[in-house]
Amino acid sequence: MRSDRRLRRLVVDERTTYLWSVRHKHRDGDVCREVLSLYLDGARARIVFRSGEAGSGRVVAEGHWYSGCVADGRGNLLNLREPGVVRAFVDEARARGLLRGGGELDGWELFPAVAATVDVRSAAAATPAAPPGCPPGP
Asked: Does 38 reside within a domain?
């Protein structure tokens, strides 16, 4: 059985490799949180998803789904334990210049862009192009 406590590797390019992990956390008197931690050159960035207020639709696992899942109440659910989802968050945060030096980021700010990206990647992977010379389908 795989240890959920270990750090996983995410290779972005020849010079950049992140270590990452996901945790479900509670603080006294605070809401449940899913935390995606990214480590690069000794700096840690945490992308944090706090369970939303009633009616916000923002939900973290809290026993509803598998640990690591976050949903926005608009039909978008992301599993933070999937490397492709983590890569999409890294790409979006880097594009916005948010990963320099570490710190804590609000995951819900990145969520819409990542959900759109992951949906596009999933749809493309599910419908590969027909090889050249292949006859049309049924």
From this structure: yes
